[in-house]
């Protein structure tokens, strides 16, 4: 499942015609449309027959009654990285998390570490950085967090070269 991205969870069956509650965990709800395909954590391939965003209800092709729909309850929906790139439109300075992970964090001439995870908090997202070995040997913490804030901490994101240039991230590391 390494090339798959988790996007939603299926809830309980609603009504008698095969509808399920949908809990989206993606910044791109537009990918949930008729004809879109997903894979579940139980390796099922599902195609959307209809989706009602106002009621958060979804129905899949060949799941036409409550009994067949119930078999999908609590399963997770995944899409491929390719599907994501095709169906999700990014705005300026927006990037997919899978492109940000493994980027080197650079500040002036220092290599501070590498992005290992992204944490979502109510006000902003944070990059979890695994500190570079030479800095850890100098007594710095093994990991630290940098706000994903383009106005103060993130100067430039270069997905092609897997680098992120930062401002004040070294200060955060020093005070961690």
Automatic annotation (TrEMBL):
The keyword Protease does not apply. It comes from the Bacteria. Keywords: Chaperone, Cytoplasm, Ribosome biogenesis, rRNA processing. GO terms for molecular function: ribosome binding. GO terms for biological process: ribosomal small subunit biogenesis; rRNA processing. Residues 7-82 form the RimM N-terminal domain. Pfam families: PRC_RimM (PF24986), RimM (PF01782). One of its GO terms (cellular component) is ribosome. The keyword Magnesium does not apply. Residues 97-165 form the Ribosome maturation factor RimM PRC barrel domain. InterPro entries: PRC_barrel-like_sf, PRC_RimM, RimM, RimM_N, RimM_N_sf, Transl_B-barrel_sf. It is found in: Cytoplasm. Binds ribosomal protein uS19. PANTHER family: RIBOSOME MATURATION FACTOR RIMM (PTHR33692:SF1). An accessory protein needed during the final step in the assembly of 30S ribosomal subunit, possibly for assembly of the head region. Essential for efficient processing of 16S rRNA. May be needed both before and after RbfA during the maturation of 16S rRNA. It has affinity for free ribosomal 30S subunits but not for 70S ribosomes. Belongs to the RimM family. The PRC barrel domain binds ribosomal protein uS19. This is Ribosome maturation factor RimM. It comes from Halarcobacter bivalviorum.
